[in-house]
Amino acid sequence: MEFGFDATSGGVAARPGLALVEALSPLDADTAHLLAALAHQLRTPLTSVLGYLELLLDGSMDPLTAEQERVLHTVAASMTRLAAYVDDLEPRSRVGPG
Questions:
Q1: Is the pTM of this model over 0.70?
Q2: What is the domain partition of the chain in residue ranges?
């Protein structure tokens, strides 16, 4: 089995995979930019929806019936989950080897 270590020279042998990694780096950067733009475009309407849900649920607007409040809590939970997914799209929020 070849691990890329050259015992005769005392160092790591040239790895063909390194060229592939270097070739894919621009694609990785493009993907990161695309994900950041997508996250930004999704976050803008999410912020508005979550803000209005908060106004409705905290009583700042007309009083809600119990059924309306229940439905809005369900919507708020779903929107909060969606906001977390959008945050995960953001490349800077990813934790990885570094």
A1: no
A2: 25-92
